[in-house]
Amino acid sequence: MSDFLTNLTNINDAVNTFVWVKIGLFLLIGTGILMTIVTKFFQITHAGHWWKKTCGGVFDKKSHNKKEKGSVSQFQALCTALAATIGTGNIAGVSAAICLGGPGAVFWMWVAAFFGMMTNYSENVLGIFYRRKNKEGEWSGGAMYYLQDGLGKYKGCKHIGKILAVLFSVFAALASFGIGNMGQINKITLNLESAFFPESFQSMTVLGIKVVPLAIGLFLMVGAGVIIIGGLKWIAAVAEKVVPFMAIAYIIGALALVILNFASLPAAFGAIFKFAFGIKAVAGAAAGIAIKQVITQGCKRGVFSNEAGLGSSVMVHSNSDVKEPVKQGMWGIFEVFADTFIVCTMTALVVLTSGYIDLETGLVLDGVEDATLVAKSFSNVFGIGGEWFIAIAILLFAFTTVLGWSHYGSKAVEYLFGSVGTIAAKVYKVIFVLMIVLGAIMESSLAWDISDTFNGFMMIPNLIGVVSLCPMVMKITDNYVARRIKNKTDVKPMLSYDEKIQKENEELVEKGAE
C-alpha cells in the first residue's frame, strides 16, 4: 500500500507541475492580461463605478432583496462565493507561499490578483449571459454552459465546446471532494485539536481511529449536512451572516498584530519588492531559489486563494437575481480584491512582521513550519488566545468554504447528468456530507495535493472558454458602459444569449428591476 501511495504521489507531482507550471500559470496570467486589455482596464478606468455598485452598495436594499424564485440576492451570491474562496488558502496558503518562495511571492500574488480581477469579471459576465433555468426553476450557470453554448456556437466547435464542458464538470466535481471538503475539514480538525485539546485526549483511539478528530468530524458533518441539504438558499443565508463577520474579525485581529509590530512594517514591504525580482538567499552551499519559484508560488497560491480563473465561483454568481451581466461581473472584481488585496495581504504582513522571517535574506527561521506560522505569529503576541483566535478563524474560513464548494460540485453534477441532474445533485450532496468525516480523520496530504491538480484541470477548459469568448465579453462591457456610464438611451441592452430570457430581462430592466 505504501508503494502505491508513493507512486501515486510521484505521478500527481509530475502532473501537477505540468498543469500548473508548464501550462496553467502562463494561461492564467495571459488570460487576465487579455481580458484587462479588451475591457480597457475596467478595474482601473471604472474603479469608482464598480466600487460604488459593490462595496458602496452593500447597504442598498436592492443588493440584498431577492426578486424571483430560484435565485439569491447579489450580496448573497458574493458572500457564498467569498465563503468558498476565503478559506485556508488565505492563512496557510499565504504563509506557504512566503516560506517556499520568499517575501517576493506576495508581490506576484498581487500581480495575479490584479489581472485575476478581470478574469473573474469575465467569468461572471459570461455566467450570467449564458445561464438558464433548471427543472426546479433555479438558475444554472457556469463554465460548462458558456463552453457549450458560447464556444460551441463557433463554426466547427460544437463538439469541442461540449467535450470541454464535460471535462470541466468532471474535474469540478472531483476537486470539490478534495480542496472543497476533505482538505478544508482536515485543516479545521488539526487546528482545533492543537488549540483546544490536551495531548492526553489527542492520543485516544477507538478501533484505531483517533477519538478527537472523529468527534470533530461528526460534529462538522451534522452542521454542514443541515445547511447543505437545505440547498443554496440555506447556504447563502449562512454565508451572508458569517462571511462579513469572519472577514472583519480576522482583519481587525491581523491589523492589531501588525500595529504592534509596526516597526517591522517598512522592512516587510521592502522585502516584498526586493525579493520579487531577485533571488532569495539560502544558507550553505545552495545557490538559491530562482525567481521562477517566487513567481510560481505567488501566482499559484493567489489563484488557490481567490480562485479567479478556475471557473468555480461563477456557478454561484449565476444564481444571482441580477439581470445585467456586467453588474455581477463587478461583484467578481470586488471578490478578488477583498480576498487577495485585503485578507491575504493582512496574513502576509502578519507573517513578515512576526520575526519568524529574516527580512534580509528572505529565509524562514529554523524550526518554523508554514502550517503553523500564522498561529505562532499570533500566539507570540497574544499567548494562547492568539492560537485560539486562529483556530476559530480557520474553522469559520474553512467551514464556509465547504458550504460554497458543495454548491459548485452539485452544479457540476447537475450538468453531467442532464435530465436527471437535479436528482443526481441531491445524491451528490449526501455523499459530499458523508465525506466530511473522512476529511477529519485522514492524515495524508495526498487528497489535498490531488485536488490541487484537479483545480488546474478545471482551470484549463474554463480559460479556453473565456479567451475564445473575449469578443463577447468586450461587446457586453462596451454595451453596459454606453448605457449605464455614458447614459446613451438608444443602445439595446445585451442580457442573455437566449432570446426568451433576453426579452423577459429587457422588460424588467426597463422597469428598473435589474
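Second entry:
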Amino acid sequence: MRIRHFFFAVFLGAVITGLAGQTSSSNVLAPTHSLAQTNSDAPSSSRTPDETVECEILVVGGGLAGSATAYEALLAGRTVCMTEITDWVGGQITAQGTSALDEAKMQRSLLFYAHGYNELRQRIEDKYNQLNPGDCWVSVSCFLPTDANEILWEQLQEAAEEGEGELKWFPSTVIKELELNADGTIIEGAIAIQHTPAPNTPPLNTEPLSQTIEDAYRYEDSDRFTKTIIRFVPLIGETEEEQSANPASRWFVIDATETGELIALADVPYRLGLDPLSYLNPSSPTETGDPYCTQGFTYTFAMEQTEEPQPQEMPSFYPEYEPYYSYEKPRENINYFDFVFTYRRIWSPKPRSKERVFGVSQPKPGDISMQNWTWGNDYRPGTSQDNLIYSRDQLQAVGQLEPGGWLGGLRTETLQKGEENALGYYYWLVAGTTDSQLGEGIKQPAPNHRFLAGFDAPMGTEHGLSKYPYIREGRRIIGRSSYGYREGFMISELDISRVDYLDPYYQQALPPQTYRQLWIALAGLETATVIRQDTPPDQISRRTRSTIYPDAVGIAQYAIDFHPCMTLSPPEAPGNTEREGVRRSHGQAYPAQIPLRAMIPQKINNMLVAGKSIATSSIAAAAYRVHSFEWSAGSAAGTTASFALSEGILPYELVDNLPAPEPLLEELQQQLEKNGNPIAFPDTSVFNLNWEDWTVW
C-alpha cells in the first residue's frame, strides 16, 4: 500500500528548617490575567451556544485518565460529560496508538492496580483469549488500538448501567473557553466546539491532525467542518435546595487532557519542560529551568509483514529526516529489524513460528507491528523555535490567551513535522541504508512490509498515523502551598528516585549547602538526628523508599524513563544530539503514591487534574506517565469529585489542615480502597526499607 503524503506522606522532612518540598520560582508559569477566561456575568466572545448540557462532572479528555475518571463517577451514579478531541476513548492505548502496556514487573505479578485497570486488562484477554495477541516483548500485553477502543467503550457503558450513572459522550469536541465567577475561583461553565464533516467532504480522520486542529478550535463553520457550540453547566437538580446551591458544590471539572489545556486556559501556576536544578531535583541539567525541552512526542503507525516485497515510495521529505534515524545502540548477534519489529508487535495470528527471537516467536507474514522508537518516529524538539507545547509567554504572543483565541496551545508546524518524521521512519525501516548512531553496514532494507492505512487499519485513519500523537509530558500544575511546601506542592525527583547521590557528580554540580539539603531530605527517620548532630552527607544513611504521603489517593510505579529533547533545531539536523544531562536520572524508581495535593491546582477550587498534568517535576513525570498511573489518577479524580459532591465540599478542604488529621480525607481514602483502588503499595511504612524486589525490571 502506498504511503499517502500529507503536509501536515510523611512530613518528617519539614523539620529541615522549612526545606522539604520547596520549589524554585524559576520557570514557574504564574498567572496574571487570562483573557481566555470569560466572567460568567460579562459578555462572552463565543458564538451563541447551540445547546446547553448539564452534568455533575465534566471530564475534558477521553484518554485513560479521563476514562478512568468517568468509570468511577459512573459507578457512583453520577452524570458525567466527557469530551475528547478525537473520536475514540482510551488515549494512549487507542487514539495515540501505544497499545503496549508499560508495567513494572512486581506490580504486574501481583496485579496490584486500580480495579478498573485490572478489568481493562481482563477484557483485553477475553477479547483475544490471550493477553498478548501481538506476542511482543516490550510488554506482556500488546494489542490492536481499534479493538482497545471498543473494549474500553463497552467497559464505560457497563459501568454506567451498573452504577445507574449517565455518560454524555462528546467525541471530536474541544474546550474553547471557561466561564469563571467574579473572583476567578470557580468554573461556572465551559464552552466547547464539536466538529463533524461538512456536507460532501471526507470522513473524520482522513487528514492528519496538523491539517485540522486549528479549524477544530474555531467557532465558525468551515469548508471542512460543521460546528456545534455546546455550553456545559452544572446539573441544576430537581429540588429547590439543589437548584439554589452554589455551582461550586454542584459540579467539578477534570482536566484529563494530554497537554494540560485547561490549566493553561484557567491560567493557574504550572511548569513546562525542565525544572531548575535544586536539592529536590538534583539531576536537572539546567540552573534556570527550560520550558522548551519536554520529552519527545510520537506519531505511531502500524506495519504488516508480507510474503513478497512491496513497492516502497520514498516521501519527498525523506532526505530531510534521514540523518536522524537509527537502531539506537549497538547490540551483538541480532537481526536489528526483527528486534524492532517484534518489540511492539500488536498482532501475531496463530499458528506462530516455533523459532524464538528475543523471547518471542520469529516474525512471519501477517504479523503487525506498531512503531514507537526513540531514534525513529519520536520527534524531539527542544528550543523556542520548534517546541510543541506553547509556554505561557508564547501563548500570549500568538494571541491564544485572548478572548476566543484558544487554538489548543500547540505549534501546528511541529505537529506536521512529527507526522512527516513518522512517515519517513517507515520508509527508513523498509528501504533505508543509513544509521545516524551506528554508522555504515548496519541498516539493511526490509521491503517485505506494507504501511497500514485506512479506516479499517489498526490506527483507524485514512493516512495511517495515530489520530493524536503520544504525549509523554505536558504542562504540570504547581499545587497549593501547604505545610513543608511554601512555594507550592510538587512531587520531585528525590521523592521517588534510586539514583546514587554519592556519585561525585552531585558533589560537584551542587553547591555545598544544597548538597547537604539533599542528604538531609534523604535521611528518613534519622532526619532530626542528622540535623542536630550536623552529620556529614557521606555518613548519612539514605532512606530506601519513596516519600509517603498522608493524602495518598492512588499509586504509580515505573522507571524514570526519558526520551529527551534534542539540542539543536530542527531535531532531525545532521549530527544533532540529545540535550546533555537530561538522562542523568534515567533509571529505577521506588513504588510511589499519588497525593491528592498533586491534583488540586492553585486558584480554581472546583477543578481537579488527572493524568500527566498533576504536580510533578519533569524528572518525576518521566515515571508518572504510563498506562496504569493514568488509570489510578483518573480513579482518584472520579472518586474524589463524587465524594466532594456528596459532602458539599471542595477538594482543597480535604487537605488544607494537613498534617493535622483530616477526617473527611480518611473517609475518601477508605472509599477508594473499598472500591479496589489502592492508595499505597503493600507494606508501605516509614519502617519498611525493603523495596528491592519492587525495583527489578
